[in-house]
Amino acid sequence: MTASKKFIIAFALSTTLLLSLITAGNVVFDAAGVFHISSSKFQQFVGSYAVRLQDAEFGLKMPPYERSIKIEIAETANAQCYVTGSSRHMSVGGRNAPQIAKKCDSVMNLAVSGGSFEDLLIFMGIIIDKPNFQKLYIGVDPWTLSRQRGAGWVDFKERYYLAREKFGIDPVSTFSQTDNFFQTIGNAISLDYLIKSVKSYKSGNSNVSNLTIVEHLSKKHQVNSGANTLLSDGTLLYPGSYLEKTPPPDHLVGDGTFGLSSKVFDQVVIQELDTVIEKAQDSGIEVIMVLMPYHPKVFSCEHEWVCQVIVDAEGMIRVIANQHGIEVLGSYNPKKVMVTREDFLDDVHISGDSVEQALSPRNSPWQAPSTLDTFQRTN
Amino acid sequence: MLFNSYIFLLAYLPVTLVVFFLLGKKHYKASIAFLGIASMVFYGWWSLEYVPILILSILYNFTFGILISRAGKRVSFFTPKRLLIAGVSGNILMLSFYKYFGFFLENIGMLFEMNIVPHIISLPLGISFFTFTQISFLADTYKGKAKEYDFSRYLLFVSYFPHLIAGPILHHSEMMPQFAKSINGRFQSKNFSIGVAFFAIGLFKKVVIADNIAPYSNIIFNSATEVDLTIYEAWLGTLAYTCQIYFDFSGYSDMAVGLARMMNIKLPFNFASPYQARNIVEFWRCWHMTLSRFLRDYLYIPLGGNRRGDMRRYANLMTTMVLGGLWHGAGWGFIVWGALHGLYLSINHLTANIKLPFGAWLWRGVTLFCVAVAWVFFRAPTLESAASMLRPMFFFNGISLPERLAVQPLAALGEIDWIHFEGMFHNGLLDPVAAVTVIALALLMALFAPNSQEIIDEVGRGRRPWVNSIAWKSPLVGGVILGAAFATGFSLIGGETPFLYFQF
After folding, report:
1. What is the 8-class DSSP label of residue A350?
2. How far is CA B6 from each of CA A84, A186, B9, B433, rounded to the nearest angstrom?
3. Closest by Cβ to B196, choosing from A8, A192, A254
4. What is the DSSP letter of A52?
5. Do A182 and B10 lie within an 8 Å CB cutoff?
């Protein structure tokens, strides 16, 4: 046998052995229960959590299965108003936004981490036929106007396709079984997941404990605990230790580009958003768009193109809103809504106490940036 | 599609290799055509809207190639030289439109105090690389070194997926003879194993080393204008980026070389332990070698090189390096980076005949220091931000010592203006122990470890005979080690992180 053939065999065996060991470790330790928790047991947990949350006086400790829970809440809730969006909108609710509270008897927050256009479709597909549904607050991020900017929705792709069908949007496949296959492979061979799982195992937080509901937390408990709390209206309350973090952050997290790219407008997505809004309006639902501000540091425009993308995105969203006669609350620009760095938990998330200010009327009328002239609508 | 993605490694690459070798057994021309199409699919995976730009660019240059090579045979207005100028101008115009138009408008606005807000034109991926590759083709055709009338082969030469997005920048003459050999359509275990070895090393460099250093350089550079960095933070950020860009780009280049080699094609090397260079001239012989070659052959030498006296030589060096900097992107930081390297090279040539004292290691250190300082301009988003990094690096923010040292007799030092006892990393931007450990390990590797060519014995007996053919002296051990490196990189892919040079 030649040296090169020996090398290839040794290479293949070594790779296979190491990846097999990682996979075996992931299956054994499995911190998030990806491989162990049966779907029926999981559904039972999610269903039970959604019911107990809506009955809770204050809230429940938030488990890691946020999207599944929000979808279950969407299925079972009977609120008059709903808020959708990303983690930037997870704190928005009737308790801290009088602008919303005075128009709604009941509000349910359905925003999820990394919420994307696909998530909006999923949630709208579930709630649009609810008899009590009167107002929809769409939390719009710069990335909402393009496709596949978040990965979380992928686990609920059947619901996504159902929603497309419901809204009469072309059943264009933006996701294939192969993506699912690669995701599964990624989960199985991830060395990062193995390390996290082993740490979690050592600290006694096995996946079984993730399916335990902590009953009815009190405000005091929330303040003292290190865990996120989901309130009974679906809004998120950060742990006290996180909220008390001082001084307020004044640097960008990560590379400061927030996963944005210079191409954030997908004309097809914008047309699909038009369709969703029109369907909602036809059903007698009032649609309102919610823009949460970015940290002033972002608007110091260190990354000039990021700044430009965000400004352009707000421009495009207001063009869409105008066309549909929709009210827009807030602005991406913190100066416009008079929030300061003290109002932020980090560079993209505003604290719950500052939501009212963030959604307040703008201190100056919005003016289209010159670059908006280049926007083209194709509807 | 990224080389470091599951879709590439588990679907695109295996399918492309299997179909290529199956076709190559009996229908080599078909296998070449297939590779061209597969390369277009690879490019179109990023964004379909750029495929027409790539195809137009290929058609344009192919046509000019034919016109130039045939123009010499008859007397007409369209002389080869005029056609070359027209062809190259078209390429430069396209590159300028996508890459420099906004920068140009912005600076015109600043100069004349006009409020010009250029709309962002998104840059087609790899445009700098495929444009330069084709400019070199036109120049070679003009010199009579290249001639190409077969479109499918030309299409493959430009769009060949291992080098399309971020190089190496190729010469037509080094690729076409390889594409012409039908034997290269057959599976050859030696080439395949060498290719796999290169790819494994490249994946490890990118995913395990570069991606783990990136957060440290990002946080420091992004905070530079907001907080007063300490000297330690600024240097850690700079060294982090120094390592990140090396392992990221050389990792990509190793993967490109490895992928091509799996298909029996030898691409030129792009890196040869540049941080082990003893001077800047040597550094540029080892850093992005195909860009250096391009700049030398198509810019520095046509400008006159060193043939017209020392002053002209330094001016040529400066022009070449500034344009080389500008090639990386439209920004003053790139221009300053290029100018700094032009200055370094001029000083290096000026002192070439002086026998420098002290050992080689001192000059290696000095070279690395100069290179790292220049990287600050390359990485910082603005010149202001670069200045905010350089100030603490050169003691302008003083020296901050650990608070626990503020006891006598050391506390007396606090009387000196530029010494404070506020802690070495008081901004809390990073975990200093983790950062120092990771960056030091990467730096040690860049400074002392053999490079990929040496490990895989592709360069013959070099400066480190002990390391030659690590992979082949004991193929079983080499296979196990590199297999483990590949598996580690593969299992850490997680979120797909693009290569730094994709933005250029």
Report:
1. B
2. 32, 8, 5, 32
3. A8
4. H
5. yes
Three-state SS at A297? coil
Cα–Cα distance measured from residue A152 to residue B493, given in angstroms and rounded to the nearest whole number: 18
Question: pLDDT tens digits, residue range B453-492?
Answer: 888 866 544 555 555 555 567 888 889 999 999 999 998 8
Taking one residue from A and the other from B, the number of pairs with CB-CB distance under 8 angstroms is 139
What pLDDT sits at residue A142? 87
| Cα distance between residue A301 and residue B401, in whole Å | 32
Which residue in this structure is represented by tokens 């060096």?
A: B317
User: What are B153-168's pLDDT values in tens digits?
Assistant: 899 999 999 998 887 8
Cβ contact A15–B490 (<8 Å): yes
Task: Out of B479, B482, B491, name the one closest to residue A9 (CB).
Answer: B479
Is pLDDT of B192 > 90? yes
Name the pLDDT band for A223 (thresholds 50, 70, 90): very low
Sheet holding A107-109, edge to edge: A107-109, A81-84, A135-139, A286-291, A327-330
Q: What whole-number distance in Å separates Cα of residue A158 and Cα of residue A3?
A: 50
B482: contact with A, CB 8 A cutoff? yes
Q: What is the distance, to the nearest Å, from the Cα of residue B48 to the centroid of all Cα atoms in its chain?
A: 25
- The residue in chain B having the minimum alpha-carbon distance to the alpha carbon of residue A253 is B219
The answer to whether A22 faces chain B, any CB pair under 8 Å, is yes
Q: What residues of chain B, 208 to 267, have a C-beta less than 8 Å from chain A?
A: 214-215, 218-219, 222-223, 225-227
pLDDT of A275-309, one tens digit each?
999 999 999 999 999 999 988 877 777 666 777 78
Identify the CA nearest to A288 among candidates A135, A145, A111: A135
Active-site hit among B163, B288, B328, B420: B328
CA–CA dist B501, B160 (Å, integer) = 17
Testing the interface with B: which of A295, A302, A310, A312 to mutate, by most B Cβ within 10 A?
A302
| CA distance linking residue A201 with residue A32, whole number of Å | 11
The Cα-based distances of B310 to A112, B307, B349 in angstroms read 65, 8, 9
**Upper half-sphere CA count for residue A34 (Cβ side, 13 Å):** 22
Residue B440's pLDDT is 96
Closest CA to A120 of A269, A233, A235: A269
pLDDT tens-place string over residues A22-58: 999 888 887 767 777 666 777 888 888 888 888 877 7
For chain B, percent helix, then strand, then coil, each to nearest 5? 70, 0, 30
From chain A, pick out residues whose CB is under 8 angstroms from the CB of B480: 10-11, 13-14
Helices (H), B72-170: 80-95, 101-111, 127-142, 151-159, 161-164
Which of A251-255, A363-367, B150-154, B228-232 shows the lowest mean pLDDT across its residues?
A363-367
Look at residue A249 in the predicted model and tell me its pLDDT.
Answer: 58
Q: For residues B186 and B29, give the distance between their C-alpha atoms in angstroms, rounded to a whole number.
A: 12
CA distance B446 to B459: 18
Task: Name the helix (H) or strand (E) containing B11.
Answer: none
Cα separation, B135 vs B92, in Å, equals: 9
pTM > 0.90: no
Listed in order, strand segments (DSSP E) in B389-467 are 399-400, 419-420
User: Residue B7: what residue type?
Assistant: I
Strand partners, A288: A137, A327
The chain A residue lying nearest B219, using CA atoms, is A254
| Half-sphere exposure (Cβ direction) of B113: Cα atoms closer than 13 Å | 0
User: pLDDT digits over B289-312, tens only?
Assistant: 999 999 999 899 999 888 888 889
For residue A105, the one-letter residue type is D
Q: CB–CB of B491 and A18 under 8 A? A: yes
Based on the residue annotation, tell me whether B171 is a catalytic residue of this protein.
Answer: no
Closest approach of A376 to chain B, Cα-based (Å): 13
